[in-house]
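ERR on first pass: missing label on line 2. Operator R.T. fixed the label and resubmitted. Corrected input:
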Amino acid sequence: MRPPSLLHRFRLRAATAGQAGVWLLVAAITVGTLSDRPRPRQEISLGGYRVLAADFHTHSSTWSDGSLTPWGLALDARYQGLDAIAITGHRQTQDARWGRWFSERIGGPIVLIGEELPEIPQHVIAVGIHSTVDSALPVREQIAEIHRQGGVAIAAHPGEFFWKGFEPVMDQLDGTEICHPYTFEYPDVHPEIEEFARRADAAAIGSSDTHGPGRLGMCRTFVFVRDATAEGILEAIRAKRTVVYGGPAMKAYGDPELIRIAEADGRLRQMANIDYPVSVLDRLSQILGIGGFAMLVARRREFYRAK
Amino acid sequence: MLGCGVSLLGSGRFTLRLILDGTLSFAFVPLCQLAAFAVVHRVQRSGLPFRVAADRYFATNTPWLWWMVGLLVVSAMLPAVRAGSVLPLVLMTAPLPIALSVRADWRLFRRDGRTRGQAAMDIALERAIAWSLAFAYFLGLAITSRDALYLFVEAGQAIAEFSRAVF
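pass 2 clean. output:
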């Protein structure tokens, strides 16, 4: 009997590796899904207000270079222990409408209609608007239009590069991002957005600006509301009733009296924790999944070579 | 695989809810490739059925898949607060799979009997269509400069004119 040809041996090995790869991947997804537990979400009342955890700067994958669909963002917000999010597509509000529609149907978090107006040299976040604001307008008119629609205007990641754009409207901003994941990557930027916040005298805002990598709500805003509704959130931002933990030292920013109450309580600082521990199951899921993929790709190469 | 990448970068694990959502979010990538290859396949007037030709064509994505395996390894090692660090790495290393997949396409088209010039044109046409479609969808509204957005319109017009000339 003739020994199997090299080609035959290739095919055999590839098929075996492929099957093993699929099983590894299935195991990785099973383990990963089992260890995927939501962050604890508590109903907190402090100083006579209900405290909501919110993320006002998020991007979805529909036309806005994010990685999750609008409904995926709403589901993930629930997993990340958030009570509210604003979906802020670039120059459009359609994905926010889809996200709100979905969240209302599943009894999910409050989804506010938002938009990011990313012009040079400033990026403005509009939250609580009804229709798309034209980003070609001068910044002063952008903000006037946001206010006309009943929304709030937030300065997005206002590092020094963006200061010039915001100069004419410092007194019109309702909020300014004081915690942004960018500052964990580049701590040198944090003093810049801190300096901007001092000058703007607006509500302190923490936002994840999520596009995919990282966690939704990694930077979050604690909003002290009278009513746990979209309107209640906007009213609280206008009244600057927010607390944010940000910067390398996770310093508290916002209303001094509310900071005092929050620090005495301690739960908000705990909820703002940016330490996302990797469990044994998570690590196992990573190893199995990456191993499975490597085997599948190797199998694919051999398969086509044999073809 | 793109969905798994989304899940790993967004949660540090392979979890079904994020994999499904990420897969849906990035379904436009193979769809844009398929649309572009459909045009190239028509230009090539190949005797192969489209299904078979497309299957062989997608095999030239292997450099991208290895590159993504590498990115998954890096993502798994990064703590959540540094997950954004993967983006500069993506931009810096992407030229490698781009070049390798061009080489793989070149070999495939040459093996199918295309001349050097024709193979080069096929690759250029495929990339122009696929990348324009993908960028227009993914970044079209997001990019900052309106002039840059207009570049896509111009690219679309040039492709339309070229397609009219070819067909």
